[in-house]
Amino acid sequence: MKMKKTRGIIYLQLILSTFFLTVLDQWTKHLAVTHLQNQSDISLIDGVLSLHYRGAAFGVFQNRQGAFFILTVVILAFILYVLWRMPVTKKYLPVRILCFFLTSGALGNLIDRIRLKYVIDFIYFSLIDFPVFNVADIYVTVSMIVLLLLVLFYYKDEDDFAFLSPKKKGK
């Protein structure tokens, strides 16, 4: 019974944090449209970082809404599978938090693609001429980098992710 109650709390955390993070992403995109569309760039750090509205359908999955939707559903299903199987211990708290950010990033960009048929991007790292991106992209990119670092340096034991095997139920 305690395990179900704890898993229920985890799913409530997922719903609430995903809602909050996705709303934050959508709010920043709204601000970008309101204050940056048809305006000059806003330099935050000269020659390094600026706010630059880009609301056109460029980039990955352009004109492939169906593929993007299917990929997002598959990713979200995998995240739910991981959360369901993951032991409810402090050891996996970082992964759980990363799952919340990944879910929010995927949903934030999916909302744009469904609603607008493109993703609103507005953050430009000009120092290295990095492609224009948004808050949802930050959630996904940073989460994947941190997850990679965790897998390489923290979760070293071969059994650390054994809970993902369909044969073995997580504890």
Descriptive account of the structure:
This protein is mainly α and 171 residues long. Helices cover 58% and strands 9% of the residues. It has helices at 2-36, 65-85, 93-116, 135-153; strands at 42-45, 49-54, 121-125. Strands 1-2-3 form a 3-stranded antiparallel β-sheet, with helices on one face. Helix 1 (2-36) packs across helix 3 (93-116), helix 2 packs antiparallel against helix 3 (93-116) and helix 3 packs antiparallel against helix 4. The radius of gyration is 18 Å and the shape is globular. It starts with a helix and ends in an 18-residue tail after the last helix.
Give the secondary structure arrangement, pairings included.
Layout: H1 2-36, E1 42-45, E2 49-54, H2 65-85, H3 93-116, E3 121-125, H4 135-153
Antiparallel strand pairs: 1-2, 2-3
